[in-house]
Amino acid sequence: MAKKIKDVDYLGVSARVRALENELLTAEKLDQLLAAKDNDELSKLLQSFGYGELDPRHPEALDADLTAVRAEALEDLAAILPDPGLLDVFKIKYDYHNVKALLKAEAMNVSTDGLLADLGRVRVEELAAAVRENAVDNLPGCLGETVREGREVLSSTRDPQLCDVAVDKQYFRDMLQTAEETDSAFLAEYVRLQLDAVNLRTLVRTLRMGKNTDFLRGVLIAGGGVDPDELLRVCANGGNGLAELYAPTRLAEAAEEGAAALRGGLLTEFEKRCDDAVSAFLADTSLIPFGEEPVLAYLAALETEYTNLRIILMGRAALVPADVIRSRLRAGCV
Questions:
Q1: Which among 328, 286, 329, 322 is positioned nearest to 305, based on CA atoms?
Q2: Which pTM value belongs to this model?
Q3: Which of 244-248, 323-327, 329-333 has the lowest mean pLDDT?
């Protein structure tokens, strides 16, 4: 029987993570990036913040650059974590992103060059070979089942969006199962909150598009804290009761923004509030001295930092005003 990992086993790594938190981009540093007068100044700032590989002159290469930074961070943490399996929850999304890209490229007979991220549990070369040869039984989690289902959806419907829906449902199912297998109640709660946020987004988008409950039923994801049947009820009522349904949850403010979006408000603020609710949950770990919680919060904070960098660099490249870019930035987790 494997030794049960205790919070005290994280004493060393927690101290390391607390030190790494000091290197995260603060609101002040993000403002400096926004205020940079040109790309030369922006590039120098990025280098001083530890992002020497990011080149604002080539925003089209940003995802590849951030992938390299992510890979280094995950590799460093994997070497010192008592349970490296905790990282799988953060790696899983890349497996499913890659499955989507591989299946669509196969259906359209095009290359996947530049589309795959080698950050998942399965190396890109291994996953590509498994999909190509239809040898998916040994892939981890729900990946094998997902490849078969996604391929069948594309074959029968030729609709990439329906394929995305099928793959995303399996992704969240896999992420929740993986979190529960770690025996970390905190990690499982974090994933369930993400599921609730995804379902809230889906409900609001469904209503904004004028779709009905039959459509919503097909895209909702089970496993969160809010009953999908309650979301279907709100949908059937044209959105009435949305804010009240989420009032007792961490997504209360996001749901209020969702209700405003249904009345003609902007979706950008609603989307931001959904992400900020998850960040606020993770920020509660600031008073926990050691354990898996500070590590998981740091990993999520890194993802938020990458998101904010992408918003800033892509926004500047598109000549979006600084105040508009600033309004879209996500709140930090730590």
A1: 329
A2: 0.78
A3: 329-333
